[in-house]
Design goal:
Layout (H helix, E strand, L loop, with lengths): L2 H12 L8 H8 L6 E4 L8 H5 L5 H9 L3 E11 L2 E10 L5 E10 L5 H9 L4 H8 L4 E11 L2 H7 L6 E10 L5 E9 L6
Length: about 190
């Protein structure tokens, strides 16, 4: 694990945060328990999930590079709470609509310029894509890596059946003033060799 990610993981232990947030918001809204999940060390994440999750880059460009295809989103749920805009999404490959991520995100809309907010609220492209297109300076800092069991909510979003062991991460995006722009739980589907 790189020193930067190791340092981030060490800080995560001392910082107070909710591992499942903002995914917990959507499950509470649906009246459902969260699927069983546990925090794992980045070194314990198997490939190719490690390559896709254990870094300090945005997931959208990482997934687009890995799959060689642009990504769009399918909105599964949304809500506003104070200055927070919450959305639950599946990220899909352009052309095939193959799901490559299930995510829950809390976006602090008031920390974005009006034109960026407008693109976010159009709900067509993932936040990482919008930030890249609009040149929004930010850093991505994973706070934890996750291993979890899929449930019917995640299976439906990722077009899966049965019990699946999945990997993901809890990430925060920060602006140059160290204010959070977004908090994200990012979960990948099982790896299937083509």
């Amino acid at each position: 694990m790189s020193a930067a990610i190791s340092s981030t993981a060490s800080r995560a232990v001392s910082e107070k945060f909710v591992l499942e947030h903002p995914l917990d918001e959507f499950y509470a809204q649906m009246g459902l328990p969260l699927p069983p999940l546990q925090q794992v060390d980045g070194e314990a994440v198997p490939q190719p999930y490690k390559r896709l999750l254990v870094h300090q880059n945005d997931m959208t460009p990482t997934l687009e590079s890995f799959h060689g295809c642009d990504i769009h989103l399918r909105l599964l749920g949304r809500r506003r709470k104070g200055n927070g805009y919450f959305r639950e999404v599946a990220l899909l490959l352009d052309g095939t609509d193959q799901p490559v991520e299930f995510g829950a995100i809390r976006i602090y809309l008031d920390r974005f310029a009006p034109k960026v907010r407008l693109q976010i609220l159009e709900e067509r492209r993932p936040l990482g894509h919008v930030l890249q297109e609009c040149g929004v300076k930010h850093t991505s800092r994973p706070k934890a890596f996750l291993r979890l069991a899929s449930d019917h909510v995640i299976n439906e979003a990722l077009q899966l059946t049965g019990a699946n062991v999945l990997y993901g991460r809890r990430n925060t995006l920060f602006d140059p003033r160290e204010q959070p722009l977004a908090e994200i739980v990012e979960i990948l589907p099982p790896w299937r060799k083509e």
